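Final report, section 2: Outcomes. Of the targets proposed, GntR family transcriptional regulator is the one most frequently requested by collaborating groups, and we therefore present its record in full.
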Amino acid sequence: MQLVGRNAVPLSQRTSEGVARVLREEIFSGNLQPGEPLPERALAESLGVSRTPVREALFTLQSEGLVELTPNRGATVRTITSQDIVQIYSLRAVLEAYAAGEAARTRTGADLDALVDAQAKLERVGLSGTAGDQALADLAFHKLISDATGSRLLQTIMGQVLAFTVSYRSRYSYPAERTAIATEQHRGILEALRAQDGPLAERLMREHVESSRAFALAHFDESGHAVVP
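The predicted structure is given below as tokens.
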């Protein structure tokens, strides 16, 4: 197995965290497809590491919902079902609405500046970026909101939930109409955070996530692929 754009992992990153980061990026980019086997020996050879950090990285990615470990079969990239999408977006609606409400109260000026920059980048890649670019830019914006709460527990949980979303979201680009809708929703959330209006930020975030869930389900088939007209 040879990972696209990768040779050996740099010596300073030959840890389970470094291997997990590489594999996570390969899944997000679509280089590693749903159902694709992830043999430890082949991954170790491709990345220039021993099998131990590979095995530990696969367990990490399993906890994030990106990899499935099956006895006597080994690891594979997880295939996402429509029920997975319903469940993960339902969790996001609850967790991210709460995070937005908290962030409106706790955010600093630096947090707000970082969110403004993240939104500007998201708008740029929304016009010309790849599906992976769009997904990662969206992830950065949403992650900054959970970071602004100052809650390490919430940041950890949201990191896992958002990673699972990106593994599917990175398989299809938003069309112009959907991009425009998401942009306006993000701007509204930003303004609520700027005004430190917790109830409004919470409501707008919930509406945004529910809107994203409806779009995801409308462009999905049970093979785990996006269906975009």
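The chain has a mean pLDDT of 87.
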